[in-house]
Each structure stands twice: as C-alpha cells, then as structure tokens.
Design goal:
14 helices; six-stranded parallel β-sheet; alpha/beta; about 300 residues
Amino acid sequence: MSAQAWVGKLETNCFAQGETDMPESCDHNHLPQLDPIDVVDRRGFLKKTAFVAAAGGAALASPAAAQSDTYADPVKPALPASDVEVTLANTALVVTDPQIDFLSPDGVAWGVVGASVERHNTVANIGRLLKSAKARGMTVAISPHFYFPTDHGWRFSGPLEKLMHAIGMFDRKGSLTTEGFEGSGADFMPEYKQYILDGKTIIASPHKIYGPEANDLNLQLRKAGIDKVILAGMSANLCVQAHLHELLEMGYEVAVVRDATAAAMLPEGDGYLAAIINFRYIANALWTTDEAVRRIEASA
C-alpha cells in the first residue's frame, strides 16, 4: 500500500460515518501495511497527514486539555530524587535528530509531531541549549538520523521504520555524497547550523533506527573525556529515549531536557506522555530548558 493510500485508509477508518473525534478504542486497524519503499510527494504527504495530529493530538488542542497539564510531574512522587552535577570538562550536550523532517513545518513528520513541537517550544529550546553550550565552551555532539538507498533494501522493519522509509524521511542520496542534502528533510534546521557546522561540534555517524548502538557517538564522547550527558532532541519516545537507555547502560550520567524534545500524536497513543513517564523512572535528572541553561552557564 502506498503512503498516500495509507493516509486515506487511516482517515476513512478513523472518521467513518461522520466521526469527528478519535474514539478511545475501536475494532478496526488504524495502521494498514505500508510498502517498504514508496515514492511519494513529501509536501503532499505532509499536508495529508495534518488530520492525524488533529485526531491523535486532540488532547493537545481541546479546551479541556488547556485547563490541565497532562505532563505535570506527580505532586507526591514515590521515587527518590536524583540529579546530575554539570562540570564543564566531562559534560556534553547531546542532541538527537535536530533535522528538518522532525522540527519544521516543511518536514514530512510535521503532521504528527507539529502540535507537540509547538506546545513545548522545542525548536527554540534546542536552540537555547546549543547557544548556551557553545558560549560556555561545552562539548556538543549531534546524533543524526540518515537513510541511504541501501537502507531501503532491509528485509524486515518495525511499523515506524516502514513508515519512515515509505515517506522518505531523512533520505539522502548516498553515504559519500551531499547531493540534494542542503535544505532537504535530512538537513539540520537552518537556525542550528551556526552551532553544528562550526568545526568543533561532534557530528556522529548516523544512527539507523532509534538508539546509538550502531553509530560512533559513544566512542566520540569517551575520546572527549565525557561521562555526563545533557540530552535533548527528537523524538522523545523514540530516539531520545533509546539514547537515554543506551547511554545509561554504558555508564553515563544523563539529564534529559523535557521541553527540548517532542513526539508524535497518533491513535496508538501520545508519544511524549509515554516518554516523560519513562524519563521520570530512569533519567538521572529531568530538567526544563531554563534549568539546563542555568546549569550550563554556571558550570566550572
């Protein structure tokens, strides 16, 4: 099934017979099978997917949601508090997937992540972290997400992998060429390039699914003497959470910046809510951008 047909079927399934709200549960399949490779118009798909954010993200847009914060921390947490001391010599800011396809209205994922990105002011907050870290001389590392033509030949994939391949998310023409890269969905957000392309930022080899197990992020951080990470980027319940898990397993202290990330809203659930719960459970610290910037600027 093509990506455009996927959108049409999802729209039909979820809004059949005049439905205007996404039901809490139903007996039909919201996510029909996608072809592993489907050449579609990226901008056209973006426009068509806008309804998904309106449906799956209804909690963000509804007046009732505006009256309460779904993502607020518990008033009386059961878990003990923990924290990370930011020290300039061995702390790095790590940003996952600061790319157009996730963070710009021109990106193919905007239809499902845009409401969350805007709610958390994610684009500006990532920019503030980069600016602060660079001003302080802190190590900054980017863990990007790229797909090359050979990646489309994978013999099996999970649901989101299939979707990303079908809509051309993070696609590049090859591993040894930048042809067509500038301004594409795989490119870095324009406002971040002054920080990322300064010749000092570590740009790791690309991760391919969610975590950093297959790229050289850990090697680069260890060679830079890093054992503490301030983690931000996209998307919260996928690459950020996967990086958090792996970095913890490799012995890093990790503080996640909760409003410098965002996630998709789909019938399957709210990705940001899923992430924030797990961040509370396992991150060494969970900060706002204001708190992270304060700590970076005060680091010695």
